[in-house]
């Protein structure tokens, strides 16, 4: 796993993949990229000579294997470096039929292309210098964005985000690192090319920028991944009913957004542009005999991991003492919570009076009473500003981890300087920081790192 | 429902729709068509001035509402009449994200476009003379094709198919019709501008062409809609097991074709390029008490409607007399059938010997024995030639019905001539034939007819 600067593109082959969603539709787009992509498209094309066409032009014709015409298509020609991948590229817009898509791709494979791996187009774009690694990762975040905030955050990052600033600060640090290493060449002579005060100031400047980015991850993470939310309470408090009411109400809205059908939105609600992800707490329901202790333990664990707890009280079945007891236990978890008094329609007035002036939201999940007020309370718990164009926000866990590691290693550099360690140790500490920083934007990559990032992309991207 | 020649396009508005399948993917294509489509795209586009660009060119830029950039996109410009619809048209290729698609379409709607109705792009292409109605219908058949034969048949029809010949013959008939009608102007004078012998010859020529088309529907229908197949037999003969074996084996192959997931391929098998559609015969299984009679009756009805019956005998449970009896009943239905001896591994050798030299295929559905031989037999029952480029094949029920009605009304014309009816009745008969013929290619349409055809298209097509 030796780190290396990213190599110039040595992929001479041409890759092909369906770039749109598979299925029956008006159009589908099949994408080719690579040195020979226009040549390979031409072998399957009856129409103008694509090789003689200008970049960014569209040509009507037919895809044919010589004997059979598979489909009438529009072919878009892109000439290097003016394409997404910076390579020669072709997009074939055919009728959106699985049979046609299959036949065209089969023919292109026969004529010299090979099937693209997941994320390979974006990987090539990165390797060819189209954008840096953090921007490439934003492409995947962009297409998976579930809310407009998440889309805007990904778009900002794809447009550059913190990349430029990180790169600039890294350049400055490299400058100092080389000066420190130069000192080493002079061995015993005790020269100091890298002024220690300037180095210290630079490191503090870098750390203060990193600090801002690191702190933005709290918001960025919520925007990208949603708020982990637990609905808890005693058996029969109405947890499932509330979950269904919340999901169904919002599901109706979600379904107006055409096709927000990701793998599973089973337990997910988008409220005010924020995704709330419900964590299953089956444990709370399985409270029988000896199993009880384990179940409660598990649920408590999940509640601790949550960012928000909706804690439900069955007002028709409880009393002040029990409520007090449950509240005390809830507070011990140290997680933000909302106290939900359910079955308010069946509660006796002693209970209701005893809870007056307390921060309870009184609902009936079954009757769908006061659900709007509950939703407002939920939203108030999460302080998210709308993401604006240009806002720099760290949403990617990998970036967050590398930023944190860089910050810590820079702290070690400062400490080494204070401790007066020798130049070679100092240089080693600085190199470590440069490595972490470089991995963020992909100026330093490893095959494993790239494999790990791009294999999570979809095919065709 | 007054018939009318298809009007010139009076749609001044610009329509917009997603043209690719909704979902998460590398790309999605949003399509605009109409006089102002380039202008409307320009209002949402930061980049070059699209209005100044040549047709069939692609432009990189951003979709923006002025404050927020929604996505970086490629915009393709098509200028009338050089587009699918023959109108100004724009295709916006954005990142394949439901949120982005929604935001871009919302913005275009705000800026003056309106959401396209199902099939409206193709309808406009038809109304603007891009192709005739039979060709327009082939576009839908093309994207829904499940086999390569169905694709080729649809493609042939889209490329023209029988349209030219039908139009030419109709022109000749119109010529005669006008001569006959001219005779009417001369009232009592007993002139004969339309030579009766020539008219008769033309009608016979048209009928002989229609006959070929009408006869091709048997094949065309199988290619488009598949072979309705029933698996029948006594309870516990192994019908479900066989169905599952056939479906699962072929399902594995089908799933290699990326995304042939239509609404339901529950009971469908593609074998040798032909779709076999299994008809549920639950009735056969529900044979209890008085219900029995009804159930058997229903199943027999479904068997009669099938094009092929796989009739199963449980060889471990039957005897020669029973087999003979079942065979006799089967023959009465007049539907092609294959006799399947199941559970061959559990059959006694008397049974096996008695069936020697009989046209039984011996299998074990549970053991998956001899399934290949059964499949070959199934395929041999359906005599379908591979559809070649240029083959003219009627696959559309509407066309088939109109061709048949035209044929019959032309027979009435011939009979009228033999009966020596007066010119005005003759003219009426000819007009009826012209009407049916004209409806096929859409030279005569009604709003209802168009509504009926295009509402079955998907949105974006």
What report would you give on this structure?
Chain A is flat, with a radius of gyration of 29 Å. Chain A has helices at residues 37-43, 98-110, 120-127, 133-144, 148-158, 163-185, 196-225, 239-254, 291-305, 320-332, 349-354, 371-381, 397-419, 423-441, 447-454; strands spanning 15-18, 25-33, 45-46, 57-64, 69-78, 89-96, 114-115, 227-233, 268-271, 274-278, 308-314, 337-342, 360-362. Chain A is 47% helix and 16% strand. The first copy, chain A, is an alpha/beta fold and 461 residues long. In chain A, strands 3-4-5-6-2-1-7 form a seven-stranded mixed β-sheet. In chain A, strands 9-10-8-11-12-13 form a six-stranded mixed β-sheet, with helices on both faces. In chain A, α4 runs antiparallel to α5 (148-158), α6 (163-185) runs antiparallel to α7 (196-225) and α7 runs antiparallel to α13 (397-419).
Please give the structural blueprint.
2 copies of one chain form a homodimer.
Chain A (H helix, E strand, L loop, with lengths): L14 E4 L6 E9 L3 H7 L1 E2 L10 E8 L4 E10 L10 E8 L1 H13 L3 E2 L4 H8 L5 H12 L3 H11 L4 H23 L10 H30 L1 E7 L5 H16 L13 E4 L2 E5 L12 H15 L2 E7 L5 H13 L4 E6 L6 H6 L5 E3 L8 H11 L15 H23 L3 H19 L5 H8 L7
Parallel strand pairs in A: 1-7, 8-10, 8-11, 11-12, 12-13
Antiparallel strand pairs in A: 1-2, 2-6, 3-4, 4-5, 5-6, 9-10
């Amino acid at each position: 796993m030796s780190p290396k600067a990213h190599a110039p593109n040595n992929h001479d082959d041409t890759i092909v993949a369906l770039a749109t969603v598979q299925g029956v539709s008006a159009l589908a787009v099949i994408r080719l990229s690579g040195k020979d992509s226009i040549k390979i498209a031409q072998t399957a094309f009856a129409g103008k000579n694509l090789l003689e066409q200008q970049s960014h032009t569209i040509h009507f014709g037919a895809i044919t294997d010589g004997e059979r015409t598979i489909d009438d298509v529009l072919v878009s020609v892109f000439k290097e470096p003016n394409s997404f991948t910076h390579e020669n590229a072709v997009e074939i817009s055919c009728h959106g039929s699985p049979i046609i898509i299959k036949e065209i791709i089969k023919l292109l494979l026969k004529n010299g292309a090979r099937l693209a791996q997941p994320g390979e187009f974006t990987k090539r774009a990165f390797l060819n210098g189209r954008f840096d690694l953090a921007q490439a990762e934003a492409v995947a975040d962009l297409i998976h964005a579930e809310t407009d905030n998440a889309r805007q955050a990904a778009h900002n990052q794809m447009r550059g985000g913190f990349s430029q600033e990180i790169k600039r600060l890294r350049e400055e640090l490299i400058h100092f690192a080389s000066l420190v290493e130069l000192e080493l060449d002079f061995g015993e002579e005790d020269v100091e090319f890298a002024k220690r005060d300037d180095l210290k100031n630079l490191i503090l400047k870098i750390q203060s920028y990193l600090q801002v980015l690191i702190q933005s991850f709290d918001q960025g993470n919520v925007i990208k991944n949603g708020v982990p939310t637990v609905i808890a309470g005693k058996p029969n408090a109405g947890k499932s009913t509330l979950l269904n009411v919340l999901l169904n109400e919002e599901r109706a809205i979600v379904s107006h957004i055409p096709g927000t059908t990701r793998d599973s939105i089973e337990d997910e609600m988008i409220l005010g542009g924020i995704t709330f992800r419900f964590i299953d707490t089956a444990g709370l329901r399985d409270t029988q005999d000896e199993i009880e202790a384990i179940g409660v333990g598990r649920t408590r664990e999940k509640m601790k991991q949550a960012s928000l707890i909706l804690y439900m009280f069955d007002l028709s079945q409880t009393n002040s003492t029990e409520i007090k007891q449950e509240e005390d236990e809830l507070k011990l978890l140290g997680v933000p919570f909302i106290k939900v008094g359910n079955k308010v329609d069946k509660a006796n007035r002693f209970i209701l009076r005893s809870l007056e002036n307390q921060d309870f939201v009184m609902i009936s999940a079954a009757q769908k009473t006061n659900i709007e007020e509950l939703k407002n309370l939920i939203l108030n718990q999460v302080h998210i500003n709308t993401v604006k164009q240009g806002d720099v926000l760290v949403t990617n866990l990998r970036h967050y981890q590398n930023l944190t590691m860089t910050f810590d290693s820079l702290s070690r550099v400062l400490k080494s300087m204070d401790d007066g360690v020798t130049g070679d140790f100092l240089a080693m500490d600085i190199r470590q920081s440069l490595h972490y920083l470089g991995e963020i934007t992909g100026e330093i990559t490893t095959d494993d790192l790239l494999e790990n990032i791009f294999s999570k992309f979809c095919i065709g991207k």
